Amino acid sequence: MTDASFGAPLDVSDPRAVRRATILRLATGLIQGLLLYGLYQADQSKVWPATQRELYGALLLVVLFTPFVVLAGVSALRWRTLAVWKGVVAPVAAGLGAYGVWSGDPAARGVDALGPQTFFAVAALVFIGHHLVEPADLERRRIARYEAYFDLTWKHGVQGALSLGFTGAFWLLLFLAAALFKLIGVDAIDKLIKHEWFSFPATTVMFAAAVQLTDVRANLVRGVRTVALTLLAWLLPLMALIAAAFLLTLPFTGLEPLWKTKSATAILLVADAFLILLANAAYQDGTETTAAVLRWAARLAGVLLLPITVLAAYGLSLRIGQYGLSPDRVIAAACVLVAAGYAVGYAVAAVRPGPWMKALEATNIAMAFVVIAVLLALFTPVADPRRLSVGDQVARLERGEVKAEAFDYQFLRFDAGRIGRNALDRLKTNSNAEIAKRAKRTAAQTGRFYDVDPDHPAPPPQITFHPNGAQRPSGFPGPVKDFPNFEGCLANGAVCDGRLLDVTGDGRPEVLLSSGRMIEVWGDNADGSWGKLGSFQPCGGFDARAAIRDGKLSTAVPRVQDLVSPGDRMSFVEDTIPCPPPAKP
Question: What is the pLDDT of residues 361-384, one digit of tens each?
């Protein structure tokens, strides 16, 4: 195979080329699925590489996103270009993944995990970067013609959407098959699709197959793209009219109502995004014959972008001046910067004589590079929103712009990741006694709503066991497993009543605790530790503490017992669980 064999889109008239692309794509999907399954198993079993969280985050993003370069480029890129581009994507994804875990995104599900913003950023970087690389490689130029950028970007966008839909339909059919066969007592399919060793490779292989199918049927993809762009284009006059009416109304209402919403910048930026999207839908690649109303609407949209972006920037500057930086405001500032680039370019395109909106082409290409630079800055230490926000907020505190008692220490503890916690640790030794005291108090919190005052700690929980004189079980409540942040009757300051009662039927009594309406159930483990088994949620105005104190609690056999089959146990769940009427005296 020569290097030039990848220099053009897939030739569907060549069976060998189609077969080669099919094999490579399916193999890529299979390998990706197996690697994702391996990472999942490592995370579940807490073994290497999951024990090194930064490495795990790096590998996860590499395995998740690098294969998409192969899926998109295997039929078009030259071998050399494909290898170099993969060699760029892999370390960039790895670096962003490692930094995302290290910095500690508060939005992540779990400790030392990646947040959704990191996944979005890497996906955007790969998509935008690929559609700068592939057209240039096809045309053997550093900067390709705009028509090539437009055609490939929208083609792959539609391909991706159709492939996701195909993969979703595949899983719907599997669930349907499982339900049908369970009707006749065959649960093999149901068990199969519940195994991760099947679900991961099956999903990635089907997605890869969908990419190949849509690549072979390029005319179908082009037809879907044309319909979608045509429909979007005819929304542009309406959006331009809405934006113009909004700006013309402002002199009569003033800006005060706009700032009172506290979300003006975000809404204005969304309006910018719609104007840009719809203007591009109308312009397309600049070679299509466009209706006069769409041409004038695109010019109007290009002019309107400037004042809307200026308003967004002004509103954001007011918020930053009042309250300083926050992660959301840093991201908003980055969005304003990008919007400003589009606004200037589109305004020039709208007023420049000659072919309509021609300067839009250069603007779109230039802004693609700007967006890549902005994303790399935001998700690395260069312009990490948490780093910039923490530095600004702490500086405001130390300059006296914010009083010690008004400062948001919880932002550092819970919303700014590792950088915020490190800053909070430094504030614990601040020369200002009030700042140091409040920093220590916040650092001692185990949860956002578990306030701890080191100077005046809350008393330990007071649990009175009944009947009077009854002693709590030996060793209760500690050590406690699977309950890191004590709450309820084990929270400091709680006042509860307790009683021993065997509710599991194992011959050993459990501990029943209540501070009011709910009854907590605690059981001892074989190793001597204690764990919370669950709770009872009484109906109506039931006084759980009184019932525990008076001993008016007993167990009852469920009306419907559990069903047991080899390897499985099922509990009965009623369609509705009404509270019984109160007993008559």
Answer: 999 999 999 999 999 999 999 999
Among 236, 231, 300, 308, smallest CA distance to 267 is for: 308
> How many residues are present in the chain?
585
Q: How far apart are CA 336 and CA 369, in angstroms?
A: 16
> What is the residue whose two structure tokens read 């009757």?
489
pLDDT score recorded for residue 168: 97
**Amino acid at position 455, single letter:** D
Between the CA of residue 309 and those of 264, 332, 563, what are the distances in Å? Answer: 11, 12, 63
Report CA-CA distances (Å) from 431 to 389, 403, 434, 438: 22, 14, 9, 12
Model confidence at 585, pLDDT cuts 50, 70, 90, reads very low
Q: Among all chains, which residue has been given the structure tokens 């919370």?
A: 532
Which tokens go with 403?
């009083």
What six digits make up the tokens of 307? 């004042």
What is the enclosing helix (H) or strand (E) of 380?
none
CB 60 within 8 A of CB 108: no
Least confident of 259-263, 370-374, 392-396, 572-576: 572-576
Sign of CA dihedral 407, 413, 414, 419: positive
Virtual CA dihedral for 169, 173, 176, 177, nearest 10 degrees? Answer: -170
What own/partner pairs with CB < 8 Å and gap ≥ 24 does 327-332 have?
Answer: 327/385, 327/386, 327/389, 327/415, 327/416, 328/385, 329/389, 330/378, 330/383, 330/385, 330/388, 330/389, 331/378, 331/385, 332/265, 332/266, 332/269
Q: What pLDDT band is residue 71 in, cutting at 50, 70 and 90?
A: very high
Give this prediction's pTM: 0.79
